[in-house]
Write a structure and sequence with these properties.
single chain, Rossmann fold, two-stranded antiparallel ribbon, binds flavin mononucleotide
Length: 181
């Protein structure tokens, strides 16, 4: 437990790979990181907030307007983060981050965060190859976001191709390299 002074904001997007966020959350907690999970509304369709609350040991945040955060959840949650990681990063979140849209908690947290941001995209190959998604990828790299994946392999749409999210161990390695240099 040597990392308990470091806080990871684990934002979960609404893609099928959201189930892997539970594995990452558990591994980070076991390594001593203080983990705070934020979920989009769509992410709730793929994984239960109670799972991530239990694994992180803290309540999950998902609402922009939440009376337990008088300053605003985006202000208070972003302030404590040493790193924000988005697992999975959907095409929708990439578009919002690339254009400054802040219409829910996760996109507003991205704008508010002053810490490094690590994105783990996951989507079908057709989505990943779309010119708009590639433009957003380039824009986010220019904006200073760090990326892990996507990789080529089996996709849940039952095709092989690029768009598969990196495995939790690879994402954790990227987190540790960003936090510990
Ligand atoms: C079964 C299913 C699987 C999906 N998988 C993905 C995915 O892997 N990647 C993605 O970008 N969008 C995926 N979507 C679409 C997103 O859920 C949708 O764009 C949603 O608006 C994303 O919301 P969020 O970015 O706020 O989480 C999927 C939708 C469904 C119904």
């Amino acid at each position: 437990m040597t990392n308990d002074h470091q806080s990871v904001l684990l934002a979960v997007g609404g893609g099928i790979a959201a189930y892997k966020s539970a594995i990452l959350c558990s591994q980070l907690a076991q390594c001593g990181y203080r983990v705070r999970v934020a979920m989009t509304a769509s992410a709730n369709q793929f994984i239960g907030a109670d799972t991530l609350a239990a694994l992180s040991g803290r309540p999950v945040v998902s609402r922009l307007f939440d009376s337990s955060f008088p300053l605003g959840a985006h202000i208070e949650v972003a302030a404590e983060a040493d790193l924000m990681v988005v697992v999975p990063t959907t095409a929708n979140l990439m578009a919002k981050f690339a254009t400054g849209v802040a219409d829910d908690l996760v996109s507003t947290l991205y704008l508010q965060a002053s810490c490094p941001v690590l994105l783990a995209p996951a989507m079908s190959a057709a989505m990943w190859e779309k010119p708009s998604v590639q433009r957003n990828h380039q824009q986010l790299q220019q904006d200073g976001c760090h990326f892990v994946g996507p990789e080529s392999g089996w996709l849940s749409c039952r095709l092989e191709g690029e768009g598969r999210m990196s495995e939790p161990a690879a994402i954790q390695e990227a987190i540790e390299s960003l936090l510990n240099g």
